[in-house]
Structures
1.
Amino acid sequence: MKNFLALLLTLFLGYMIIASLSNNEAFPKYGEADVSSRVSQRYIDRNVTENPGEVLYGEATNLESGSANTIAAIVTDYRSFDTLGEVTVLTVSALGVALLLGGAKQSRIELNFKPNFMLRVGSRALFGIILMTGMYISIHGHLTPGGGFPGGSMIASSLLLLYLADDEFRANIKGVKVIQSVAGSAYVIAGLLGLFIGTYFLENLLDTAVLGDLFSAGMIPIIYVLIGFKVGSEISRIIDNFLTEESV
Amino acid sequence: MSAILLIVVPLLAAFISILFKKASPYILLIVSFASVIVLGYIELEVITIGGFASPYGINLVFDQYSLIGLYIVNTLFFLVVAINCVKFKEMSTILLIALAGLNGLLLTGDLFNLFVFIEISGIAAYLITATNKNPLATFNYLVAGTVGSSLYLVGLIILYAMFGTLNMADMANEIAVSGVDASLVAFPFLLMFIGLGVEAKLLPFNSWVKGILASSNKLTGPIIASVYAATIGFVVGRLLTSVFVFSDTLGLVITIILLASIIAGEAMAFSSNKVREILLFSSIAQAGLVVLVFLQGFIGWGVFLVVANAAGKFILFTVTNHASDELGTDEVNDLKGLFVNNKIVGLAFTVASLSAIGLPVFLGFVVKMNILGDLFAEGNLFIPAVILITSVVEGIYFVRLLIKLWYKEHDLPVVQYDFIIKYVVVILAILIMVFGVYTAPIETEANDLDLISFVEGGNL
């Protein structure tokens, strides 16, 4: 009965969405929205504070947000405060997992298979490659799709590989905690520097250089690397909490 | 000094306290105390973040409205922490993040940023309620809260597709300029309202409240029923009065649901035999009343209703939950005669409950009286009738409760209240009485809040 009611409610909600949005003149049809009147157009043209004229890859300099990847420009520059919030969401979730599953003394949960020697050695070799890819994606977040969130998840996944391929392996959780704390604090401090040296919190203080260069976009790559470390350490800690248990 | 520090400093402290477990309760105590003190030194302004003016960047609105909210929320938060920080050491980091989230909710002027802070403070709340040792209730709360915030997000996505902006003031402006009919935007606003309704304990979405507050302890009771309730009250107030556009039909439907919420809450409280349940059902009713007042557009008195409820519920839950933590029960009959040996705490409890009923000399009376007056002035008779009848019901069950807690000859329950609880509840009770008699400052403040529009840059 409960399930049936839930189904009815879901169908009703679905009907409501369709009924209220189809033929709704305020809701533009797919592909017909007038983008020029929206805030997002200014992010693409980079003309929120001043008009830089035409923005060309490899030529434009000193833009208000010098990241070639527009998503990165929005996520870590125009709306960086939201990203700080999302990082906090991840932190508090990881803390919650540690609070509920963690204890004073932890040891590994027994896996129901015995990893053999080849698997252990092979996974160590792969670990480095995955870690490097994760780093690369974090560092190049302002140039290519990716950035700190997927990069950090990759870093954590390299640790997950070690956890699964070796039933004795445990990461240095103290070190993970230090990264977790320092990367988060550094993000906030980077913001505070903007407030005290410049005028605004999270202001981009550094020179944004030439659009498309590795060393460009000012604070964006720095913040993305910090996010990469932060996300990587949070997820690693969650992985560790799920794969360990309180030892007797 | 910039108001953004109210969000950022607790956040920084939280990140640092991950490394210093032993010092974290003291960091929490210092930071939450500093947040209250620092409020007196910040100028009212709209704060731009990252150097991009709204609507392109995110802004924080630090105006008269958020100032009152910040004062009450930060003060009560500090008091909760002062009472609990030794007992719940392991929660320190999470409480710091909760403080950042709550201040963010009160300050932000951006609808998506609001969602981020709903998530931060929400997840922190789920973890704080984990100390109730009632995992099923906490899980229910987690599911309800997450579904609620997802509905808010879906509503916001639809609005963004319609108007292409996320800033609150800009959104209100765009809707007004585009001249669309209110019925066309009814659905996204309804979704967002439901999303907030989960946290605000409104009727069909509040199934989590009973599990959480009925098993609450000295930390979770005051923090959920008072601190979080006040914050979400302020958020709903700002959105309802300045951003949301409801068509007449939808407004009527919501009004009826809210009235049902008030009546159901009071009826459930009336029929309950457990102290914590009586209080939690009464706070459901009060939450309905708060939203109703904001929906009618009375900003000023809505604000003071939130303040009066928060202060009252803080006293009621702190006193009750300390007793039930000590005795392991909250049946009214087991707590009979609780105040015979705890007269000071008992007096504070009495003041808070009489103020909740709305008897003269207490803050609750001033607020209810003015709301009723405003409603009558608008020629509205149905809503005042419901408020008056439910106040009578409220009066009956609170007085019944008070009589039981005050009178018993022998076999008195043994509960010791420590110095700090006595001190805190008495001060709050005195404040409730002072502002119940000396009403001039709140009256001017309420009228000021009514006059100025948030959309034109806030009540600076």
Note: The helical segments of chain A are 2-21, 39-45, 70-78, 80-101, 117-139, 148-165, 173-197, 219-243.
2.
Amino acid sequence: MNFAYTPEQESLREEVRQFIADNITPEMLQEMEESGIRRRGPQVDELYKKVSQKGWIGMSWPKEYGGQDGSRIDQYIVEEEFARVGVTVGGAGSGAPAILAAGTEEQKKYFLPGLIKGEIIFALGFTEPQAGADLAGLQCRAVRDGDEYVINGQKMFTTAAHYGTHIYLMARTDPDAPRHRGISIFLVPIDTEGITVRPLWTIQNEPTAPLGTTYGERRTNEVFFENVRIPASCLLGEENMGWYVGAMGLNLDRVGASRYLISVKRDEDIVNWIKENDLDGYSPAEDPAVRDRLAELWIEAQVCRLMTMRSMSLVEHGGNFTYEGAAEKVWAPEHGVRTTETIAQILGPYAQLLNGSEDAIEDGIYAHNLMGAFQSGINHGSAQVMRDQVARRGLGMPRG
Amino acid sequence: MDVIPNEEEQMVKNLAREFLEAECPPSLARNMEKDEKGYPPELWQKMAGLGWLGMSLPEQYGGQSLPLTYLGLIIEEVGRTIAPVPLLSTVVPSLTIAQDGTSEQRQQLLPRISRGDLIMTWAMQEQDPRLLPETVHLEARAQGDGYLLSGTKMFVDNFVVAEKCLVAARTAPASEQSQGISLFLVDTGSPGISATALTTLAKDKQSKVTFDQVSVPASNLIGELDQGWPVVQRMLDLATALICAQMVGATRKDAEMAIEYAKNRVAFGRPIGAFQSIQHMCADMILWVDGGQLLTYEALWRMDQGLPASVEVSQAKAFCNDKCVAAVRTSQIIHGGMGFMMEFDLHLWYRRVTAWSLRLGTTFEHRAKVSRALLDQPGKVRLGMTMAAVP
């Protein structure tokens, strides 16, 4: 075992930090935050172009598809530094690993470089109104018709649909097969005729959550498919094998820097804030109850970090993890909730104040986090579903 | 960065498990609870033969010069099988002597320890349950070419079988220059020493040891006079990291017993392990142990690298205290009534893990150390950065 980064990795981290200091401006973060109501703007596009020119997206992917044949740990370092300023890079969600594993040569050559350059953005189209935690119950239909598929149905919480270029779609192709074996995945251009995207506004909207600091999105979407015709070449992997392709991608998407970091950044924020501030003479940093609780949370944050390191190490070893990704997905979000709620109790009534309010501390992030922190434990597989996975896949416990 | 044990480390662990599972059935731990010595000497000799006692001691003293992480992996397995041996109480002082002893002391003691000829222990704690320099009152008064030790030590492990004991004593009041603590090597059979066995939760061998003008030659001082506190601190850090490994090993086995039980115990027409309420308890147990294990490995690894590790050790112990106890309690709950029947083995693990959570620093003490590092020094904190311990 080895808990240190190499000197090369340390200097990569320095380089990324410097890049961030040089390139990410408050105006750019503002623009990014506003992507909740409009497409990504010119400054953000420019940023992604620069990041991609640096070779910092898809670093662990093969060179022939625009990657670096590099280490997942390197990619993690880049993700972690960007995540600290609230910018997501590198991961490209669960679509990219699925394409790498199951895509045709043509799909790999088209999508992977596009994802790296930021020209392609996937919106995850898995969840439906009647299929959330029980994803395999999804009903959105795709029917083969000659060289095409015809899609009808509805997707929910399709968060990137209003600025993405494609929907990474899970649909039922065989309604008569056992439910896990009649599902396929499609990469659907979002501008295809028959697709309607409607906004769903979350409790994080109005007032705008402060820049790049909160859990949760202001906007997500519902997407309707009405006789949407797509070429059969949009199918990813084999027909009816989509459940397995999708699950593998999700597994990899659950690990990594951004989820862990959004949870632990709050620990850093509150510690750094109470070290330098008091509340009219009351210093939480000197309050024994606060000190004990903050230490407890800080230790938990270390566990989040180490569980993420474990997943990264396992990916580096070939990605054979059974429950470790799920473990990380239980710990980090639940830790984030504990931290958020503890901070609120430290600040008391000040933690109610939202962005823009008179006397709000740190632009009201703590109030916004009370609305957002628990979301991280719900999306992309709830903590309860993750515990099921730990128990069944990791520990071999029987199904009920 | 690769937090997974490598092939060689895994091999060390596997071999240790294989050996211990063959040698240490639960009945051994059970029998040793009633044994006068509390350990089987034949097993101790076998462990010496495997090189475990000198695992991380220098080769010139009969050791293997292997990293502390290796020793940690072995102690994890010792915890797993709750092997009744005075391993922790011997290897910790041996490493303290290796680091801070004179070459004469090393030459005299370390080869004997490696061979399995010398069982040791240490005595630090007194009436105050905390591990702080100001809690040390046992006095060592200079007299002639030596010292006279008077006072009482609590919770001394395996004193009844140890031949030598490292004793933290007060040689001066705390001052700007030092904490006034010195560390002495004391023969447990010295005149003036009387030991009373304590009856403990783990039914292990702990003693209350009274020193009445116990004479110790000056050559038995470990480190410098009055400057013993940093030596004691390093010793405590090492002992704490290793007891975490022991807790993690024992807790994982305990959790595995609950998982196995849940797969087989039928209620309401199905194995109780098919109920989500039980599955989630099992998932949490494993996540808790994993967390404690990762924190412990990181602390040990940092010690191996010669990096500051005091804060990391406290992180591990605070977490293990909390979560290992939660896990073994959860395991008891899953086992229902059978779990607390004397004839059933589960309580052997439960009683030890809960007892170990009370040794070498409580959750409050270790969190206090972490909060001092977090809050009482200038500059911004950042997760993943090294934090200096604040005394």
Note: The longest strand of chain A covers residues 219-231.
